[in-house]
Amino acid sequence: MKRERPVVSALQKFAEKEPLSWHVPGHKNGLLSNLPLTIKEALTYDLTELAGLDDFHHPEEAIAQAEMLLAKAYQVNRSFFLVNGSTVGNLAMIYATCKRNEKIIVQRNAHKSIFHALELVGAKAIFVAPVWDAATATAGAVPASTLHEALQLHPDAKAVVLTYPTYYGVAGEDLRLQIKMCHELGIPVLVDEAHGAHFIASDTFPSSSVQLGADVVVQSAHKTLPAMTMASFLHVNSALIDAEKINHYLRMLQSSSPSYLLLASLDDARDYIDSYLERDAAYLKDKRNQWVEGLRAIQPLQVIEVDDPLKLLLRFPGYTGFQLKEVLEAQGIYVELADPYQVLFILPLLKHGQTYPFAEARIRIKEAILNLRKIEANIIQTVASSNENTTVSTPEFSYDELEQLDKEWVPYMRAIGRVSASMLIPYPPGIPLFLPGEKITVAKLSQLEELLAVGAAFQGQHRLNEKLIYVIK
Predict the structure, then answer these.
(1) Could you tell me the pTM of the whole model?
(2) Cα separation of 40 and 30, whole Å?
(3) pLDDT band at 385 (very low <50, low <70, confident <90, very high)
(4) Fewer C-beta neighbours within 10 Å, C or N terminus of the chain?
């Protein structure tokens, strides 16, 4: 197979000319930088739109070629590089499909960027609730029956927005059917597949939503492919949505000074997944299974496997995920996230012959568990078996109405039945617990108390250090 990385090649050719910089950026090919040497050396390639390097917002050369190779790899009509993360892809796909006061059906356990997009557009959100996933103790996928109910109630919806897989690697089984249901009504399906850029690599992984027929798919290449942070993909494969409309909003929302380091890493990540072979998948599976078997031998550590083989959950009975995370970090093991029950590992997408310190990691994890035994257990309540939400719901107030209403700070223990005026987001994973315009329920407050008790971090507009939250007056 011929290996092509047009953006990487263009940068290399440019640097070989030993050019003198009389242009931005101000570090002048790194000469004026006082960053550590390993970072400073990379600044040779931190360039701007110069002759031979193409124009990110009107690509005709290396970037255009790289994006065509990306579309070919994922077998879609058109693909785009994103340098502002998957957030900008989520914004663009919603702007391109929905206008102010138009309805859009949204999975309730979506990422905060989806809800930010709804607020910016001024759309009328119709929330569909996921089912509780007992294995991961998290909100999982939306069942087809729930989406069918929402479509029956709101056939005038302009789009359906789904998250696939969840942050914890839960894919569910209904996405193909859900896409078919929507398309029968002429409604496009937009998928936040931030954690699934690697799904096309092998049948070892769940099917990608691009393979299942989704109209627009956004992927964080930096999450599971070897791309730099903020580097993402957006794919359009639809008869219902014009790719040029998506492109229009990407030009508006993305930086006018794109990072060529990010673009090069996207080009390289595409090449990595494009050249991934079944023998690579078999090699990864073998290494992973050996490691999982070794972890299971560390008693009483619990190892939970999910739909995505690159995700793995570890629990230690009687202790919170935050406690486990702390002792792991003391041993130099840094996980993706912790929650009240567990920690989440994201494994490397290895190719045949590549190495990763699995054995060393197991030794350190075992040592961390020994240290955790010396700490007083933090007994947590039984994991909830449902998320209490009705299957299909709408906020009490629209975004336009919320802007006009008076708000106030109240003690969260006196907020039952009140309407939230802001987002309250346990982070990570970035899925809002409270949304603006939603009624605050007993179950939501119980979750908040539990998260506060075990030391969870929160984003959004809040004064939780004073036990206050923001509500409609």
Answers:
(1) 0.95
(2) 6
(3) very low
(4) N
